[in-house]
Amino acid sequence: MSIKILVANRGEIALRIIRAIQELNYEAVAIYETPDHESRHIRIANEAVWIGDGPRSDYLNIEKVINAAKHSGAIAIHPGYGFLAENPLLAEACEDAGIIFIGPSSDVIKKLGNKVTARQIMADAGIPMVPGTKNLSQGDEGKQEALAFAEEYGYPLMLKATAGGGGRGIRRVDNDKDLDEQYLVARKEALAAFNDDSVYIEKVVVNPKHVEVQIIADKSGKTVHLGTRDCSIQRRNQKLVEIAPAFHLSQELADEICQTAVKAANASNYTNAGTVEFLLDSDNNYYFMEINTRLQVEHTVTEMIAGIDIVRTQIKLALGKELIFDQKDIMLRGHAIEVRINAEDPKNNFMPEGGKTISVYRSPGGYGVRLDGFCYQGFTIPEEYDSLLVKLTVFGWSWNETVDRLKRCLTNFVIAGPKTTIPFYLNLVNDPDFKDGEFNTSYLDTHEHLFNYEEHSSEANKLARLIAEIHHKGKNTYAA
Ligand code: ADP
Ligand code: ADP
Ligand code: MG
Hints:
Layout: E1 4-7, H1 11-23, E2 27-33, H2 40-44, E3 47-52, H3 62-72, E4 76-78, H4 88-97, E5 100-101, H5 106-113, H6 115-124, H7 139-153, E6 157-165, E7 168-173, H8 176-194, E8 199-203, E9 209-217, E10 223-235, E11 238-244, H9 251-267, E12 272-280, E13 286-292, H10 299-306, H11 310-318, E14 335-342, E15 344-345, E16 351-352, E17 360-362, E18 369-373, E19 388-396, H12 399-412, E20 414-416, H13 422-429, H14 432-435, H15 443-446, H16 459-472
Parallel strand pairs: 1-2, 1-4, 2-3, 4-5
Antiparallel strand pairs: 6-7, 6-8, 9-10, 9-12, 10-11, 11-14, 12-13, 14-19, 15-16, 17-20, 18-19
The structure holds adenosine-5'-diphosphate (2 copies) and magnesium ion (MG).
Protein backbone atom coordinates (compact mmCIF):
# COMPACT_ATOMS: atom_id res chain seq x y z
CA MET A 1 0.00 0.00 0.00
CA SER A 2 1.22 3.45 -0.86
CA ILE A 3 2.36 5.83 1.84
CA LYS A 4 -0.18 8.60 2.46
CA ILE A 5 0.59 12.06 3.81
CA LEU A 6 -2.08 14.51 4.92
CA VAL A 7 -1.72 18.19 4.12
CA ALA A 8 -3.31 20.25 6.89
CA ASN A 9 -3.65 23.43 4.86
CA ARG A 10 -5.30 25.10 1.88
CA GLY A 11 -4.50 27.48 -0.97
CA GLU A 12 -1.20 27.67 -2.79
CA ILE A 13 0.81 26.03 -0.03
CA ALA A 14 -1.41 22.93 -0.04
CA LEU A 15 -0.71 22.54 -3.76
CA ARG A 16 3.00 23.09 -3.23
CA ILE A 17 3.16 20.33 -0.64
CA ILE A 18 0.90 17.94 -2.57
CA ARG A 19 3.25 18.23 -5.57
CA ALA A 20 6.24 17.23 -3.43
CA ILE A 21 4.32 14.28 -1.94
CA GLN A 22 3.29 13.04 -5.37
CA GLU A 23 6.80 13.45 -6.77
CA LEU A 24 7.96 11.12 -4.01
CA ASN A 25 5.35 8.65 -5.28
CA TYR A 26 3.32 8.94 -2.12
CA GLU A 27 -0.37 9.79 -1.95
CA ALA A 28 -1.56 13.18 -0.78
CA VAL A 29 -4.65 13.57 1.39
CA ALA A 30 -6.23 17.03 1.35
CA ILE A 31 -8.61 18.45 3.93
CA TYR A 32 -11.11 21.22 3.24
CA GLU A 33 -13.80 23.37 4.76
CA THR A 34 -17.00 24.14 2.86
CA PRO A 35 -15.94 27.57 1.48
CA ASP A 36 -12.99 25.79 -0.18
CA HIS A 37 -15.09 23.16 -1.94
CA GLU A 38 -14.01 24.47 -5.35
CA SER A 39 -10.35 24.84 -4.46
CA ARG A 40 -7.73 23.21 -6.63
CA HIS A 41 -5.94 21.55 -3.75
CA ILE A 42 -8.86 19.15 -3.39
CA ARG A 43 -8.74 18.12 -7.03
CA ILE A 44 -5.00 17.55 -7.32
CA ALA A 45 -4.82 15.54 -4.09
CA ASN A 46 -5.29 11.77 -4.28
CA GLU A 47 -8.14 12.08 -1.83
CA ALA A 48 -9.84 14.85 0.11
CA VAL A 49 -11.59 14.85 3.47
CA TRP A 50 -14.27 17.41 4.25
CA ILE A 51 -13.75 18.56 7.83
CA GLY A 52 -16.62 21.01 8.34
CA ASP A 53 -18.15 24.34 7.41
CA GLY A 54 -15.43 26.38 9.10
CA PRO A 55 -14.55 29.03 8.18
CA ARG A 56 -11.03 28.63 9.60
CA SER A 57 -12.26 26.94 12.80
CA ASP A 58 -12.03 23.46 11.30
CA TYR A 59 -8.61 24.00 9.74
CA LEU A 60 -7.65 25.01 13.28
CA ASN A 61 -9.33 22.00 14.90
CA ILE A 62 -6.58 19.58 15.93
CA GLU A 63 -8.97 16.73 16.69
CA LYS A 64 -10.56 16.94 13.26
CA VAL A 65 -7.20 17.07 11.51
CA ILE A 66 -5.93 14.05 13.44
CA ASN A 67 -9.17 12.17 12.78
CA ALA A 68 -8.91 12.94 9.06
CA ALA A 69 -5.39 11.51 9.07
CA LYS A 70 -6.45 8.36 10.95
CA HIS A 71 -9.54 7.90 8.81
CA SER A 72 -7.54 8.11 5.57
CA GLY A 73 -4.61 6.05 6.83
CA ALA A 74 -2.10 8.90 6.50
CA ILE A 75 1.16 8.19 8.33
CA ALA A 76 2.31 11.83 8.41
CA ILE A 77 0.95 15.38 8.46
CA HIS A 78 2.50 18.41 6.78
CA PRO A 79 1.07 21.59 8.35
CA GLY A 80 2.25 24.12 5.72
CA TYR A 81 2.35 27.65 7.14
CA GLY A 82 -0.32 29.52 9.09
CA PHE A 83 -3.24 27.68 10.72
CA LEU A 84 -1.79 24.94 12.99
CA ALA A 85 1.77 25.05 11.63
CA GLU A 86 3.26 26.64 14.74
CA ASN A 87 0.84 25.20 17.26
CA PRO A 88 2.81 22.79 19.46
CA LEU A 89 -0.44 21.02 20.32
CA LEU A 90 -0.79 19.65 16.77
CA ALA A 91 2.77 18.32 16.84
CA GLU A 92 2.03 16.87 20.29
CA ALA A 93 -1.25 15.30 19.15
CA CYS A 94 0.63 13.71 16.23
CA GLU A 95 3.27 12.34 18.60
CA ASP A 96 0.49 10.90 20.80
CA ALA A 97 -1.37 9.37 17.84
CA GLY A 98 1.76 7.82 16.32
CA ILE A 99 1.54 10.12 13.28
CA ILE A 100 4.71 11.76 11.95
CA PHE A 101 4.60 15.56 12.19
CA ILE A 102 6.60 17.09 9.34
CA GLY A 103 8.45 19.77 11.28
CA PRO A 104 10.38 20.09 14.52
CA SER A 105 9.30 18.43 17.78
CA SER A 106 6.41 19.90 19.79
CA ASP A 107 8.91 20.82 22.48
CA VAL A 108 10.99 22.94 20.07
CA ILE A 109 7.86 24.58 18.59
CA LYS A 110 6.65 25.45 22.08
CA LYS A 111 9.96 26.98 23.19
CA LEU A 112 10.51 29.01 20.04
CA GLY A 113 6.88 30.08 19.63
CA ASN A 114 7.25 32.10 22.79
CA LYS A 115 9.31 35.14 21.86
CA VAL A 116 10.56 35.69 25.42
CA THR A 117 11.66 32.07 25.91
CA ALA A 118 13.31 32.07 22.49
CA ARG A 119 15.21 35.27 23.33
CA GLN A 120 16.42 33.68 26.56
CA ILE A 121 17.71 30.56 24.76
CA MET A 122 19.52 32.75 22.21
CA ALA A 123 20.94 35.10 24.85
CA ASP A 124 22.37 32.05 26.67
CA ALA A 125 23.98 30.92 23.41
CA GLY A 126 25.58 34.33 22.91
CA ILE A 127 23.46 35.29 19.88
CA PRO A 128 23.23 39.09 19.44
CA MET A 129 19.85 40.68 20.05
CA VAL A 130 18.31 44.04 20.90
CA PRO A 131 17.79 44.80 24.60
CA GLY A 132 14.36 43.76 25.82
CA THR A 133 12.38 42.74 28.89
CA LYS A 134 10.96 39.45 30.05
CA ASN A 135 7.17 39.15 30.07
CA LEU A 136 5.76 42.28 31.69
CA SER A 137 3.84 41.71 34.92
CA GLN A 138 0.06 41.96 34.97
CA GLY A 139 -1.69 45.26 35.64
CA ASP A 140 -0.07 48.54 36.53
CA GLU A 141 3.11 46.85 37.70
CA GLY A 142 3.84 45.75 34.12
CA LYS A 143 3.40 49.27 32.85
CA GLN A 144 5.85 50.54 35.48
CA GLU A 145 8.39 47.90 34.36
CA ALA A 146 8.00 49.09 30.77
CA LEU A 147 8.43 52.74 31.79
CA ALA A 148 11.56 51.85 33.77
CA PHE A 149 12.97 50.05 30.70
CA ALA A 150 12.19 53.14 28.57
CA GLU A 151 13.96 55.31 31.12
CA GLU A 152 17.06 53.14 30.86
CA TYR A 153 17.17 52.46 27.10
CA GLY A 154 15.20 55.33 25.57
CA TYR A 155 12.57 55.36 22.83
CA PRO A 156 11.51 54.20 20.28
CA LEU A 157 10.41 50.81 21.64
CA MET A 158 8.36 47.89 20.37
CA LEU A 159 5.55 46.47 22.50
CA LYS A 160 5.21 42.86 21.34
CA ALA A 161 2.80 40.03 22.01
CA THR A 162 4.96 37.21 23.39
CA ALA A 163 2.89 34.63 21.51
CA GLY A 164 2.60 36.85 18.42
CA GLY A 165 3.13 36.00 14.77
CA GLY A 166 2.23 37.04 11.24
CA GLY A 167 3.14 40.65 11.94
CA ARG A 168 0.28 40.99 14.42
CA GLY A 169 0.54 42.12 18.01
CA ILE A 170 3.41 44.54 17.42
CA ARG A 171 3.11 48.20 18.42
CA ARG A 172 5.76 50.89 18.22
CA VAL A 173 5.76 53.38 21.10
CA ASP A 174 7.71 56.64 20.85
CA ASN A 175 7.20 58.20 24.28
CA ASP A 176 5.73 57.67 27.75
CA LYS A 177 2.32 58.85 26.57
CA ASP A 178 2.23 56.25 23.74
CA LEU A 179 3.32 53.57 26.15
CA ASP A 180 0.65 54.56 28.64
CA GLU A 181 -2.04 54.48 25.95
CA GLN A 182 -0.93 51.35 24.09
CA TYR A 183 -0.07 49.09 26.98
CA LEU A 184 -3.53 47.78 27.86
CA VAL A 185 -4.70 47.82 24.23
CA ALA A 186 -1.72 45.65 23.28
CA ARG A 187 -2.55 43.18 26.05
CA LYS A 188 -6.20 42.97 25.02
CA GLU A 189 -5.25 42.54 21.38
CA ALA A 190 -2.76 39.81 22.24
CA LEU A 191 -5.41 37.98 24.25
CA ALA A 192 -7.93 38.17 21.39
CA ALA A 193 -5.48 37.14 18.68
CA PHE A 194 -3.30 34.58 20.45
CA ASN A 195 -5.33 33.60 23.49
CA ASP A 196 -2.44 34.83 25.63
CA ASP A 197 -2.15 38.39 26.93
CA SER A 198 1.60 38.26 27.63
CA VAL A 199 3.54 41.19 26.21
CA TYR A 200 7.14 42.35 26.48
CA ILE A 201 9.05 45.34 25.25
CA GLU A 202 12.20 45.64 23.18
CA LYS A 203 14.29 48.36 21.60
CA VAL A 204 13.38 49.39 18.05
CA VAL A 205 16.01 49.02 15.37
CA VAL A 206 15.48 52.14 13.29
CA ASN A 207 14.80 51.52 9.57
CA PRO A 208 16.24 48.01 9.66
CA LYS A 209 16.52 45.44 6.94
CA HIS A 210 14.78 42.14 7.62
CA VAL A 211 17.36 39.46 6.86
CA GLU A 212 16.59 35.79 7.48
CA VAL A 213 18.35 32.49 7.01
CA GLN A 214 16.87 29.19 5.85
CA ILE A 215 18.20 26.33 7.91
CA ILE A 216 17.69 22.57 7.67
CA ALA A 217 18.69 20.12 10.37
CA ASP A 218 18.41 16.36 10.56
CA LYS A 219 18.06 14.20 13.65
CA SER A 220 21.73 13.15 13.59
CA GLY A 221 22.67 16.70 14.63
CA LYS A 222 23.72 17.96 11.21
CA THR A 223 22.51 21.50 10.49
CA VAL A 224 23.07 23.38 7.25
CA HIS A 225 21.94 26.77 6.01
CA LEU A 226 20.73 27.69 2.53
CA GLY A 227 21.80 31.31 2.67
CA THR A 228 19.98 34.56 3.32
CA ARG A 229 16.78 36.23 2.22
CA ASP A 230 15.83 39.89 2.43
CA CYS A 231 12.18 40.41 3.35
CA SER A 232 12.30 44.11 4.15
CA ILE A 233 9.52 45.16 1.81
CA GLN A 234 6.53 44.76 4.10
CA ARG A 235 3.12 46.19 4.81
CA ARG A 236 1.91 46.23 8.42
CA ASN A 237 5.00 44.19 9.43
CA GLN A 238 3.99 41.54 6.89
CA LYS A 239 6.18 40.61 3.96
CA LEU A 240 5.21 41.45 0.38
CA VAL A 241 8.41 40.93 -1.61
CA GLU A 242 11.26 38.56 -0.79
CA ILE A 243 14.70 38.31 -2.26
CA ALA A 244 17.47 35.71 -2.13
CA PRO A 245 20.23 36.21 -1.35
CA ALA A 246 19.89 39.37 0.78
CA PHE A 247 21.27 42.28 -1.22
CA HIS A 248 24.27 44.52 -0.45
CA LEU A 249 25.70 42.21 2.20
CA SER A 250 29.39 41.53 2.02
CA GLN A 251 30.24 37.84 1.75
CA GLU A 252 31.85 38.02 5.22
CA LEU A 253 28.75 39.48 6.81
CA ALA A 254 26.42 37.05 5.03
CA ASP A 255 28.60 34.13 6.17
CA GLU A 256 28.64 35.42 9.73
CA ILE A 257 24.85 35.80 9.84
CA CYS A 258 24.39 32.31 8.38
CA GLN A 259 26.81 30.83 10.95
CA THR A 260 24.88 32.59 13.70
CA ALA A 261 21.64 31.12 12.35
CA VAL A 262 23.09 27.60 12.47
CA LYS A 263 24.26 28.28 16.04
CA ALA A 264 20.75 29.49 16.94
CA ALA A 265 19.22 26.33 15.45
CA ASN A 266 21.63 24.11 17.37
CA ALA A 267 21.02 26.03 20.60
CA SER A 268 17.36 25.06 20.38
CA ASN A 269 17.93 21.43 19.23
CA TYR A 270 16.20 22.28 16.01
CA THR A 271 15.25 19.59 13.48
CA ASN A 272 13.69 19.83 10.01
CA ALA A 273 13.41 23.12 8.06
CA GLY A 274 13.17 26.47 9.80
CA THR A 275 13.96 30.15 9.44
CA VAL A 276 16.06 32.32 11.70
CA GLU A 277 15.02 35.98 11.41
CA PHE A 278 17.33 38.93 12.09
CA LEU A 279 17.13 42.70 11.90
CA LEU A 280 20.11 44.44 10.33
CA ASP A 281 20.77 48.10 11.13
CA SER A 282 22.42 50.67 8.89
CA ASP A 283 25.80 50.03 10.56
CA ASN A 284 25.56 46.32 9.67
CA ASN A 285 24.86 45.21 13.22
CA TYR A 286 22.47 42.28 13.23
CA TYR A 287 20.09 41.17 15.94
CA PHE A 288 18.18 37.92 16.44
CA MET A 289 14.42 38.39 16.11
CA GLU A 290 12.80 34.94 16.10
CA ILE A 291 12.86 31.43 14.66
CA ASN A 292 9.88 30.38 12.57
CA THR A 293 9.43 26.67 13.14
CA ARG A 294 7.88 25.88 9.80
CA LEU A 295 8.06 26.21 6.06
CA GLN A 296 8.10 29.88 5.09
CA VAL A 297 5.91 31.44 2.36
CA GLU A 298 9.08 32.72 0.72
CA HIS A 299 10.95 29.39 0.67
CA THR A 300 10.65 29.49 -3.14
CA VAL A 301 13.38 32.14 -3.55
CA THR A 302 15.84 29.96 -1.65
CA GLU A 303 14.89 26.91 -3.71
CA MET A 304 15.65 28.91 -6.86
CA ILE A 305 19.18 29.89 -5.81
CA ALA A 306 20.08 26.68 -3.95
CA GLY A 307 18.52 24.14 -6.31
CA ILE A 308 17.13 22.24 -3.35
CA ASP A 309 13.51 21.21 -2.96
CA ILE A 310 12.89 22.23 0.65
CA VAL A 311 9.52 20.49 1.00
CA ARG A 312 10.86 17.23 -0.44
CA THR A 313 13.72 17.49 1.99
CA GLN A 314 11.35 18.19 4.91
CA ILE A 315 9.38 15.05 4.12
CA LYS A 316 12.47 12.87 3.77
CA LEU A 317 13.90 14.09 7.05
CA ALA A 318 10.61 13.58 8.88
CA LEU A 319 10.39 10.03 7.54
CA GLY A 320 13.76 9.31 9.13
CA LYS A 321 16.35 10.01 6.41
CA GLU A 322 19.49 12.02 7.09
CA LEU A 323 20.66 15.01 5.05
CA ILE A 324 22.45 13.85 1.92
CA PHE A 325 24.42 17.07 1.60
CA ASP A 326 26.94 18.91 3.75
CA GLN A 327 27.35 22.67 3.92
CA LYS A 328 30.16 22.51 1.36
CA ASP A 329 27.81 20.85 -1.18
CA ILE A 330 25.38 23.73 -1.12
CA MET A 331 26.05 26.14 -3.94
CA LEU A 332 24.07 29.34 -4.06
CA ARG A 333 24.02 31.14 -7.35
CA GLY A 334 22.12 33.96 -9.00
CA HIS A 335 19.26 36.01 -7.61
CA ALA A 336 15.59 35.28 -7.00
CA ILE A 337 12.68 37.58 -6.24
CA GLU A 338 9.22 36.57 -5.08
CA VAL A 339 6.23 38.90 -5.13
CA ARG A 340 3.04 37.93 -3.33
CA ILE A 341 0.16 38.58 -5.69
CA ASN A 342 -2.71 39.19 -3.31
CA ALA A 343 -6.37 39.96 -3.99
CA GLU A 344 -6.01 43.32 -2.26
CA ASP A 345 -6.36 46.98 -3.09
CA PRO A 346 -2.96 48.56 -2.32
CA LYS A 347 -4.46 52.03 -2.66
CA ASN A 348 -7.00 51.26 0.01
CA ASN A 349 -4.55 50.15 2.69
CA PHE A 350 -4.27 46.71 1.04
CA MET A 351 -7.93 45.98 1.76
CA PRO A 352 -8.77 42.35 0.87
CA GLU A 353 -10.84 41.81 -2.26
CA GLY A 354 -12.28 38.40 -1.29
CA GLY A 355 -15.67 37.37 -2.63
CA LYS A 356 -14.85 38.46 -6.18
CA THR A 357 -14.70 36.13 -9.17
CA ILE A 358 -11.60 35.90 -11.34
CA SER A 359 -12.97 36.56 -14.82
CA VAL A 360 -9.66 36.38 -16.68
CA TYR A 361 -6.49 34.65 -15.52
CA ARG A 362 -3.46 34.60 -17.77
CA SER A 363 -0.11 33.89 -16.19
CA PRO A 364 3.39 34.44 -17.57
CA GLY A 365 5.90 31.67 -18.15
CA GLY A 366 9.30 31.01 -19.66
CA TYR A 367 12.86 30.74 -18.42
CA GLY A 368 13.45 31.50 -14.76
CA VAL A 369 9.77 31.84 -13.88
CA ARG A 370 7.94 29.93 -11.17
CA LEU A 371 4.31 30.23 -10.15
CA ASP A 372 2.83 28.89 -6.93
CA GLY A 373 -0.87 29.61 -7.04
CA PHE A 374 -4.23 27.95 -6.73
CA CYS A 375 -6.64 30.16 -8.69
CA TYR A 376 -8.16 29.71 -12.10
CA GLN A 377 -10.47 31.60 -14.41
CA GLY A 378 -13.99 31.47 -13.00
CA PHE A 379 -12.80 30.91 -9.42
CA THR A 380 -14.56 32.92 -6.76
CA ILE A 381 -12.06 33.90 -4.08
CA PRO A 382 -13.46 32.83 -0.70
CA GLU A 383 -13.53 35.87 1.55
CA GLU A 384 -13.05 33.75 4.63
CA TYR A 385 -9.31 33.20 4.13
CA ASP A 386 -6.17 35.18 3.43
CA SER A 387 -5.80 37.07 0.20
CA LEU A 388 -2.72 35.39 -1.32
CA LEU A 389 -3.60 34.24 -4.85
CA VAL A 390 -0.28 33.34 -6.40
CA LYS A 391 3.41 33.78 -5.69
CA LEU A 392 5.44 34.84 -8.68
CA THR A 393 9.10 33.89 -8.24
CA VAL A 394 11.72 34.75 -10.83
CA PHE A 395 15.34 33.73 -11.08
CA GLY A 396 18.23 35.40 -12.92
CA TRP A 397 22.00 35.28 -12.99
CA SER A 398 22.40 38.95 -12.14
CA TRP A 399 20.16 41.23 -10.08
CA ASN A 400 19.40 43.35 -13.17
CA GLU A 401 18.37 40.35 -15.19
CA THR A 402 16.11 39.22 -12.36
CA VAL A 403 14.40 42.61 -12.09
CA ASP A 404 13.96 42.74 -15.89
CA ARG A 405 12.40 39.30 -15.83
CA LEU A 406 10.08 40.24 -12.98
CA LYS A 407 8.97 43.31 -14.90
CA ARG A 408 8.28 41.29 -18.04
CA CYS A 409 6.24 38.75 -16.03
CA LEU A 410 4.20 41.38 -14.23
CA THR A 411 3.46 43.16 -17.49
CA ASN A 412 2.11 39.93 -18.96
CA PHE A 413 0.24 38.80 -15.87
CA VAL A 414 -3.49 39.38 -16.21
CA ILE A 415 -5.90 38.83 -13.37
CA ALA A 416 -9.26 40.53 -13.93
CA GLY A 417 -12.09 40.60 -11.41
CA PRO A 418 -10.51 41.41 -8.06
CA LYS A 419 -8.03 44.23 -7.60
CA THR A 420 -4.57 42.79 -7.01
CA THR A 421 -1.12 43.92 -5.97
CA ILE A 422 0.17 43.57 -9.59
CA PRO A 423 -0.02 47.30 -10.57
CA PHE A 424 1.74 48.21 -7.32
CA TYR A 425 4.57 45.78 -8.16
CA LEU A 426 4.78 47.22 -11.68
CA ASN A 427 5.60 50.55 -10.07
CA LEU A 428 8.04 48.82 -7.74
CA VAL A 429 10.12 47.27 -10.54
CA ASN A 430 10.44 50.73 -12.10
CA ASP A 431 11.51 52.42 -8.87
CA PRO A 432 15.20 53.46 -8.93
CA ASP A 433 15.72 52.51 -5.27
CA PHE A 434 14.31 49.05 -5.80
CA LYS A 435 16.44 48.61 -8.91
CA ASP A 436 19.48 49.60 -6.84
CA GLY A 437 18.49 47.15 -4.11
CA GLU A 438 18.07 50.05 -1.67
CA PHE A 439 15.23 49.19 0.68
CA ASN A 440 14.51 48.64 4.35
CA THR A 441 11.34 48.01 6.34
CA SER A 442 10.18 51.62 5.93
CA TYR A 443 10.31 51.38 2.13
CA LEU A 444 6.52 51.61 1.61
CA ASP A 445 6.20 54.60 3.92
CA THR A 446 8.92 56.49 2.08
CA HIS A 447 7.85 55.60 -1.50
CA GLU A 448 4.31 56.84 -1.81
CA HIS A 449 4.55 57.08 -5.59
CA LEU A 450 4.29 53.28 -5.71
CA PHE A 451 0.60 53.79 -5.03
CA ASN A 452 0.12 56.10 -8.02
CA TYR A 453 -1.22 54.05 -10.89
CA GLU A 454 -4.38 53.73 -12.86
CA GLU A 455 -6.33 50.56 -12.37
CA HIS A 456 -6.07 48.32 -15.44
CA SER A 457 -3.94 50.84 -17.24
CA SER A 458 -1.75 48.43 -19.19
CA GLU A 459 -2.73 47.24 -22.65
CA ALA A 460 -2.89 43.66 -21.47
CA ASN A 461 -5.31 44.53 -18.74
CA LYS A 462 -7.53 46.53 -21.06
CA LEU A 463 -7.66 43.54 -23.36
CA ALA A 464 -8.40 41.25 -20.46
CA ARG A 465 -11.34 43.32 -19.35
CA LEU A 466 -12.68 43.35 -22.88
CA ILE A 467 -12.40 39.57 -23.13
CA ALA A 468 -13.97 39.23 -19.73
CA GLU A 469 -16.90 41.39 -20.67
CA ILE A 470 -17.55 39.51 -23.90
CA HIS A 471 -17.05 36.16 -22.22
CA HIS A 472 -19.46 36.87 -19.43
CA LYS A 473 -22.08 38.82 -21.36
CA GLY A 474 -25.45 37.24 -20.74
CA LYS A 475 -24.14 35.08 -17.93
CA ASN A 476 -24.35 38.02 -15.63
CA THR A 477 -21.50 36.82 -13.49
CA TYR A 478 -18.92 39.46 -14.32
CA ALA A 479 -17.87 41.28 -11.19
CA ALA A 480 -16.53 44.68 -12.18
P1 ADP B 1 6.15 38.09 13.70
O1 ADP B 1 6.28 36.94 14.64
O2 ADP B 1 4.80 38.68 13.68
O3 ADP B 1 6.74 37.79 12.35
P2 ADP B 1 8.60 39.57 14.23
O4 ADP B 1 9.15 39.70 15.59
O5 ADP B 1 9.25 38.63 13.30
O6 ADP B 1 7.06 39.24 14.36
O7 ADP B 1 8.56 41.02 13.55
C1 ADP B 1 7.88 41.24 12.33
C2 ADP B 1 8.37 42.54 11.69
O8 ADP B 1 8.20 43.65 12.60
C3 ADP B 1 9.85 42.57 11.35
O9 ADP B 1 10.12 42.00 10.08
C4 ADP B 1 10.16 44.05 11.39
O10 ADP B 1 9.75 44.69 10.20
C5 ADP B 1 9.29 44.54 12.53
N1 ADP B 1 10.02 44.53 13.81
C6 ADP B 1 9.91 43.61 14.78
N2 ADP B 1 10.69 43.89 15.84
C7 ADP B 1 11.32 45.03 15.55
C8 ADP B 1 12.28 45.86 16.23
N3 ADP B 1 12.73 45.56 17.45
N4 ADP B 1 12.72 46.97 15.60
C9 ADP B 1 12.27 47.29 14.37
N5 ADP B 1 11.38 46.57 13.68
C10 ADP B 1 10.89 45.45 14.24
P1 ADP C 1 16.18 10.52 -4.06
O1 ADP C 1 16.96 9.99 -5.21
O2 ADP C 1 16.62 9.98 -2.74
O3 ADP C 1 14.71 10.49 -4.24
P2 ADP C 1 16.77 13.05 -5.10
O4 ADP C 1 18.07 12.78 -5.76
O5 ADP C 1 15.53 13.15 -5.91
O6 ADP C 1 16.57 12.03 -3.94
O7 ADP C 1 16.94 14.32 -4.18
C1 ADP C 1 16.96 15.55 -4.67
C2 ADP C 1 16.10 16.43 -3.85
O8 ADP C 1 15.51 15.80 -2.71
C3 ADP C 1 16.88 17.58 -3.32
O9 ADP C 1 16.06 18.71 -3.40
C4 ADP C 1 17.18 17.21 -1.89
O10 ADP C 1 17.12 18.33 -1.08
C5 ADP C 1 16.08 16.28 -1.52
N1 ADP C 1 16.58 15.14 -0.78
C6 ADP C 1 16.74 13.90 -1.25
N2 ADP C 1 17.17 13.05 -0.33
C7 ADP C 1 17.31 13.75 0.78
C8 ADP C 1 17.75 13.42 2.09
N3 ADP C 1 18.13 12.21 2.47
N4 ADP C 1 17.81 14.38 2.98
C9 ADP C 1 17.43 15.60 2.64
N5 ADP C 1 17.02 15.97 1.43
C10 ADP C 1 16.95 15.06 0.50
MG1 MG D 1 8.70 37.18 12.00
